[in-house]
Amino acid sequence: MFQMAHSFRKLTAAALTAAVVLAPLAASAAEEPDLIFKKSTVWKFLTPDHKLATYAIDDPVVEGVSCHFTVPEKGGISGWIGVAEEVSDVSLSCRQVGPVTIRSKFEQGEEMFRQRRSLFFKKMQIVRGCDAKRNVLVYLVYSDKLVEGSPKNSTSTVPIMPWGDQAPVKCGDYLKD
């Protein structure tokens, strides 16, 4: 009886520790992209088709910049029940959609968005950097696995331009040292 109570306390402590550790990750990943549309690419009988899905997401640190990305989504039974490992192909396009305001300093290659692409091991990431010489924000999307990464990637750049009568900010002023 004592051993069972001790095991329960260890399990409860582990669950609380996991909640404390994972809560900031969940909060940072709370922003979900907006689905723009899906287009079927391979027809599947009685199960969902393979599709290309196009999403939009606003940069949470850089107001006035939005990115659109297209990812393949597997259909069939494994895609239907959510256990398919998605391929690493992804395209990315980012644009200035309003006056640019940078809310906080950021590091080169800082993660802007992350999405799980398999049940356990694969994730897609969009990271942000700054080409200070040209005053251009640089966005890179890539997929990685726990053990091995993927060379498949896409890059998009956003030159920071004046908007109306507002002078452009300098992204280099917001890089962490």
Automatic annotation (TrEMBL):
Keyword Cytoplasm: no
Any Pfam family: CreA
Keywords, alphabetical: Signal
Residues making up the signal peptide according to the UniProt record: 1-29
Protein's UniProt name: CreA protein
GO cellular component: cytosol
